[in-house]
Amino acid sequence: MQQTRKARLTLVGAGPGDPDLFTIKGARALAEADVVLYDALVNKKLLTYASQNAIKIFVGKRKGYMAHTQDEINQLIVNKAFEHGHVVRLKGGDPFIFGRGTEEIEHAESFGISSEVVPGISSSAAVPANQGIALTKRGVTESFWVITGTTSQRKLSNDVVHAAKSSATVVILMGMSKLTEIVDIFKAQDKHDMPVAIIQNGTTTQEKTGIGTVETIVQVVKQKKLSSPAVIVIGEVVKHSHKLRDFYKEELVHVINS
């Protein structure tokens, strides 16, 4: 097909789920898109920013379901850019935080397609913040880790072991299937009483939260029937949340009395 517009790619971060947390620059990029390739965790309301004439293609990947492989997505970006012009790749959270954004850019640029990145608000910070959890707090913790719970080899990242040895807040994305393994690592560091929050579907109307400790969180997840997608937060900052402080105390009393 003859190219009518210059082939280009814009990677856009869709944010953590709440459409109000989408950026103005992201909305402008969608309005200019000829093709939108969007992920499973993207709030569908964001697609209203795109033109009615824009081609919208779901390419989502979720646990147990994959509309397209990463290689297929990479090639789809190239094909649609040459066929139609401006492709917006709409990715959940931020495209450069476990979003494989660099892979898509590198593939597109190998074909001479220019690229741009519009950062998004990452769920690693926004989801805890929405529950009043500050990842750092003076006198409590001076740093935080953000770690993927599942690597490309489908294993738990070795960085969790290093993080468990530190005093930092630990945020784990895509880690629910590895939760038992994660808590065992923290128990090995004698952190049984370390506070833990698990927030499912954070910042959306379907948000669910479970609060406990390294010792109790697996039980809490079962009781509350929590599942992916969820953000796991491990650290003393959890019990300092202005939203969760009373809930955290109630959870501890319940566990002690049960």
Structure description:
With 258 residues, this protein is α/β, with parallel strands linked by helices. Helix content is 30%, strand content 22%. It has helices at 24-31, 70-84, 101-109, 123-130, 159-164, 179-188, 217-224, 245-257; strands at residues 8-13, 35-38, 55-58, 61-62, 65-66, 86-91, 114-118, 144-148, 169-173, 195-200, 208-213, 230-234.
Descriptive terms for the model:
258 residues, alpha/beta, five-stranded parallel β-sheet
Secondary-structure element order, as H and E?
Answer: EHEEEEHEHEHEHEHEEHEH
Span between termini: 68 Å
Q: What is the gyration radius calculated from CA atoms?
A: 20 Å
Measured by DSSP, the beta-strand proportion falls in: 15-25%
Helix content: 25-40%
Low-confidence stretches: none
Number of strands: 12
Number of distinct helices: 8
Strand ordering within the main sheet: 3-2-6-1-7
The 3D shape can be described as elongated
Structural class label: alpha/beta
* Overall pLDDT confidence: 92
Describe the sheet with the most strands: 5 strands, parallel
Describe this structure in a few short sentences.
This protein is α/β, with parallel strands linked by helices. 30% of the residues lie in helices and 22% in strands.
